[in-house]
């Protein structure tokens, strides 16, 4: 395929372009495609899944007890009376399995460390895993919210915020969280067409597309981090947030595609802008990669009143297919305050919109408005994440809360670090050495790699000679390797994103060697033009 043919794809989302690259990479028979464009990890947490499936057997037995006189495969609802004793017998009968040992520790942790009722916990989990009730309350099951909240706040804020200070809404992953949030911001008049939204660039490419959708029609303001600043936001970029026309600051932290967490200086600068200049600024932060970082702090920790926290369980637990996430909001937040200050006409219209939910709709929390709007308000009673999903979420949370020495965290981090080191060693350049890096992705910067391998003159020649899309198509065609273009994530220089999460270590050797071979070929072409 000629370069001119490839350029017609330049406006495609990286995730749409990926399909074009895959077709090219797979058209040569007998060659293995290495798709380093996918963010879906090839590792997953097995122990909390084992606990989930074992607990399902206990819950099924509880159901069968209710209608045991029938033989038609019919059960009833779990009963709380005596459930602890029955669970103890179940654990004793099934002892020897890792999942059973996990459940034994979990019930002790819930009762003795969290101070929750063991009977109420077992009953909520049993009814939840059976999926025999609508989620009640729709926002989240009571003890599921408690346990999930402890885990999320521990990971995202280091425990600096008390569980009682924050409300959570269980959602179908981070994608649905964003759809719900932006929809409710629009429905409640907090954003209107023509308003400005600041995006922390580079960023997950679908987030670039959201403001431009017809139903929102927002003006995008880029807050650009650069490789020269180690993917941190320069002060002059953050100064853009002082503009009162900027309604929202929307970011991913740690970043996608950069996989670098925001440093303390940047977070403090944002906190000072909020405190001194923009107490009305709405911050939306997607912290899905935060659990891969040591000593991570979300913007929610430093700007809790202004920040809507989104956390997804998809990457850390290898659970993209489970569709698990939460939206967190501080109970005393600036968004509720903005709703209370809306013009009287709009306030009256919103009171009518939510009148079927409460006798005092003017005081309905914004988070509860998100819940209602997710089901067009009228179907609010059917809102909420499915109860089996909430049970698996709780098992994931307990798995980490009980892992006092972060064994799982250190193991997955070591997997990613080894893969990164392997890739760059095969490529022949040193890997990035950034204390804020979380190694889930790596950005392969065209000029930097060329400069390291063969000097400045070759790097400049390559920058003029080859677009990043041309190189990605050539890589796919000649090697079967899929990388995603940095330009689609809002990057301002030629680069490619490689996932370090979804292939095995030896495959990153192949990627590194293939990329080095291609660089050598370009260098030979460069020498011919300079003789």
UniProtKB/TrEMBL annotation:
GO terms for biological process: aspartate metabolic process. GO terms for molecular function: aspartate 4-decarboxylase activity; L-aspartate:2-oxoglutarate aminotransferase activity; pyridoxal phosphate binding. Keywords: Aminotransferase, Pyridoxal phosphate, Transferase. It holds the Pfam family Aminotran_1_2. Residues 173-505 form the Aminotransferase class I/classII large domain. Gene3D superfamilies: 1.10.20.110, Aspartate Aminotransferase, domain 1 (3.90.1150.10), Type I PLP-dependent aspartate aminotransferase-like (Major domain) (3.40.640.10). Its cofactor is pyridoxal 5'-phosphate. The keyword Signal does not apply. Its EC number is 2.6.1.-. NCBIfam families: asp_4_decarbox, PRK09275.1. Belongs to the class-I pyridoxal-phosphate-dependent aminotransferase family. This is Aminotransferase. The lineage of its organism: Bacteria, Pseudomonadati, Pseudomonadota, Alphaproteobacteria, Acetobacterales.
């Amino acid at each position: 395929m000629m370069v001119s043919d490839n350029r017609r794809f330049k406006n495609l989302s990286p995730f749409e372009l990926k399909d074009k690259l895959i077709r090219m990479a797979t058209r040569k028979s007998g060659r293995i495609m290495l798709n380093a464009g996918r963010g879906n990890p090839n590792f997953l947490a097995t122990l909390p899944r084992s606990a989930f499936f074992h607990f399902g057997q206990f819950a099924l037995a509880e159901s069968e007890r209710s209608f045991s006189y029938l033989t038609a495969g019919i059960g009833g609802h779990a009963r709380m009376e005596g459930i602890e004793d029955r669970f103890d017998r179940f654990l004793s009968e099934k002892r020897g399995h890792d999942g059973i040992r996990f459940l034994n520790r979990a019930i002790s942790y819930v009762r003795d460390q969290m101070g929750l009722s063991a009977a109420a916990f077992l009953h909520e989990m049993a009814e939840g895993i059976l999926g025999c009730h609508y989620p009640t309350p729709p926002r989240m099951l009571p003890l599921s919210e408690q346990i999930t909240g402890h885990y999320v706040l521990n990971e995202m804020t280091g425990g600096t915020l008390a569980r009682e200070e924050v409300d959570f809404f269980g959602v179908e992953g981070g994608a649905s969280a964003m759809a719900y949030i932006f929809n409710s911001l629009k429905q409640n008049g907090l954003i209107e067409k023509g308003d400005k939204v600041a995006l922390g660039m580079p960023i997950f490419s679908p987030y670039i597309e959201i403001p431009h959708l017809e139903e929102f029609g927002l003006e995008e303001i880029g807050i650009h981090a650069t490789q020269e600043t180690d993917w941190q936001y320069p002060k002059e970029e953050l100064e853009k947030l002082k503009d009162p026309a900027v309604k929202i600051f929307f970011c991913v932290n740690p970043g996608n595609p950069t996989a670098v967490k925001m440093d303390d200086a940047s977070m403090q600068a944002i906190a000072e802008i909020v405190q001194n200049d923009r107490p009305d600024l709405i911050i939306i932060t997607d912290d899905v990669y935060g659990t891969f970082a040591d000593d991570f702090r979300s913007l929610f920790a430093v700007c809790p009143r202004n920040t809507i926290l989104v956390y997804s369980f998809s990457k850390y637990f290898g659970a993209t297919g489970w569709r698990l996430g939460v939206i967190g909001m501080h109970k005393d937040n600036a968004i509720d305050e903005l709703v209370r200050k809306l013009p009287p006409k709009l306030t009256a219209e919103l009171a009518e919109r939510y009148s079927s939910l409460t006798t005092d709709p003017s005081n309905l929390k914004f988070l509860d408005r998100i819940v209602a709007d997710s089901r067009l308000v009228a179907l609010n009673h059917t809102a909420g994440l499915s109860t089996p999903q909430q049970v698996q979420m709780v098992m994931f949370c307990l798995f980490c809360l009980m892992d006092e020495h972060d064994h799982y965290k250190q193991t997955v981090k070591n997997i990613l670090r080894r893969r990164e080191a392997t890739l760059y060693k095969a490529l022949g350049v040193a890997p990035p050495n950034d204390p804020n890096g979380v190694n889930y992705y790596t950005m392969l910067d065209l000029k930097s790699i060329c400069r390291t391998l063969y000097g400045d003159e070759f790097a400049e020649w390559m920058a003029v000679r080859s677009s990043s899309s041309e190189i990605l198509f050539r890589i796919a065609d000649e090697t079967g390797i899929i990388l995603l273009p940095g330009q689609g994530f809002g990057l301002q220089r030629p680069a490619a994103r490689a996932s370090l999460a979804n292939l095995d270590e030896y495959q990153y050797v192949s990627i590194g060697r293939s990329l080095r071979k291609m660089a050598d070929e370009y260098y030979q072409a460069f020498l011919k033009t300079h003789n």
